[in-house]
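Subgroup meeting minutes
Present: P.N., E.W., G.H.
Scribe: E.W.

1. P.N. recapped why we're keeping a running log of single-chain structure predictions: easier to compare across weeks, and new members can see raw inputs and outputs side by side.
2. G.H. added today's entry (80 aa).
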Amino acid sequence: MHYVYLIESVYERAKHYVGQTGDLRLGISEHNSGRCIHTAALRPWHLVCYLGFADEKKAIAFEHYLKSGSGRTFLQRHFP
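Output recorded in log:
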């Protein structure tokens, strides 16, 4: 199973990050431990939502969509 997830900074609620992983718990712990340079400055993070995919290629494609302009608009509309 492959997961696309949305996390939110605990202290700066307006800061979000979209990622993709095969191990959701490990992925979140890496963000909170500072191993991910893109999110280390805004930790700790908490999980807002995730979606599971049986196919890794579909998970990667959905992550790319959420990081696009229309995907960011979708996230702002549904996860303010």
